[in-house]
Amino acid sequence: MRTKVTLISLLVIATAVFTPLPTQSQVMKKKFTTNGKSDLPISTLWRKPTDIARRDLFYGAGGKQHLPGQRLTFVKEDKGGSNPKFEVKDENGVTWKVKLGLEAQSETAATRLVWAVGYFTDEDYYFPEIQVSGLKKLSRSAGLVGVDGSVSKARLERVYDDTQSTPWSWFDNPFARAKEMNGLKVLMALINNWDLKAVNNKLVMRGGAEPQFIVSDLGATFGKTGDHLVRSRNNVVDFVTSKFIKKVSPEEVDFVLHSRPHPFLFFKLPYYIERTRMERIAKDIPRTDAKWIGDLLNDLSDQQLSDAFRAAGYSASDVRALTGKIKSRIIELNRL
Q: Which of 234, 246, 247, 319 could join 106 in a cystine, given CB atoms 3.0 to 4.6 angstroms apart?
């Protein structure tokens, strides 16, 4: 009898150990779907912008009214991710996450382009230099932090109180086949975003407000897509010389969005599979959906496009080059 009970116990334990736990995206999908259909309206992903031609791409989603205050006080370091980050609080009691390094500029510009055509983004602002009181020594600083509390080339992202978030996947979400999701995928190809992991997306819930699907990390943009040996971010030359559309068929279009690791990393099988899968995000996009997002982007003026890059602190020559490249890609979309 004891042997039988022991065997049953071992089977129960083995089942518990080897049964995979549900992923965050699976939990999210179950929470917001009924009988396989989304309980969330498309407005949680995209809202029709009736004012595209008037949108202020210099200040972006937060607008001028949400600019950070001038007196910033150090709160704590954030050691997550690959870029130096820390939190500060301004004189208005608002908390901001400061990001340093290459992604500070590219992320600031990217949020403006994505927000301009109706998608949700973080509220980001770029500053060539800020002053932070009480700044402690950081484990990572990228050589951009002075002993006097001065910080160079900083992106400040507003942190809202009473906020919950969960990751969402490009392949497993309530709007996977909607034109609005396909439009967002085209935008990722437009800005050469090669870091499309689910952990970089978040479904945000603030208080009792309607949830919002956000691509929350747009730093790996405006460079070259590819494996870790050749890809880049915030590299103007790489971006302006890169190709946008890979293949066009009567019904679909494939965009250039390389993410597969170098073959010698095949021994890291989960990583290799994830990166290889990410390349599919910009493939088999219906031409009608690509043309739809192209029509929205076509309503943006050259001045608005330039403002997005000026807001990120790019030089005048880089602003012209980046604006010209984005404009040419919009033309490619509208020729589909």
A: 234
Rounded to an integer, what distance in angstroms lies between the CA atom of residue 74 and that of residue 86? 8
Q: φ, ψ for residue 183 (rounded to 5)?
A: -65, -40
pTM value surpassing 0.90: no
Sign of CA dihedral 195, 56, 158, 311: positive
CB atoms within 10 A of CB 83: 19
Q: What is the CA radius of gyration of the chain?
A: 22
Q: Per-residue pLDDT tens for 105-147? A: 999 999 999 999 999 999 999 999 999 999 988 888 878 899 8
Give SS3 for 1: coil
Q: In the predicted model, what is the mean pLDDT of the chain? A: 86
In a 13 Å sphere around the CA of 166, the CA atoms on its Cβ side amount to 14
What stretches of 187-296 adopt beta strand conformation (E)? 201-206, 212-215, 245-248, 252-255, 285-286
User: Distance of alpha carbon 89 from its chain centroid, rounded?
Assistant: 23
Element (H, E) at 73: strand 72-78
Region of 282 on the Ramachandran plot (φ > 0 left; ψ -120 to 50 alpha; else beta): alpha
Tell me, rounded to whole angstroms, the distance of Cα 141 from its chain centroid: 22
CA dihedral 130, 135, 136, 138 (to 10 degrees): -20
pLDDT, tens digit, 9 for 90 and up, residues 163-206: 888 999 998 899 988 999 999 999 999 999 999 989 999 999 98
Query: CA 191, CA 171: separation in Å to the nearest integer?
Result: 20
Q: Phi and psi (nearest 5°) for 296?
A: -65, -45
- pLDDT tens for residues 263-306? 555 555 555 556 666 778 889 999 999 999 999 999 999 999 99
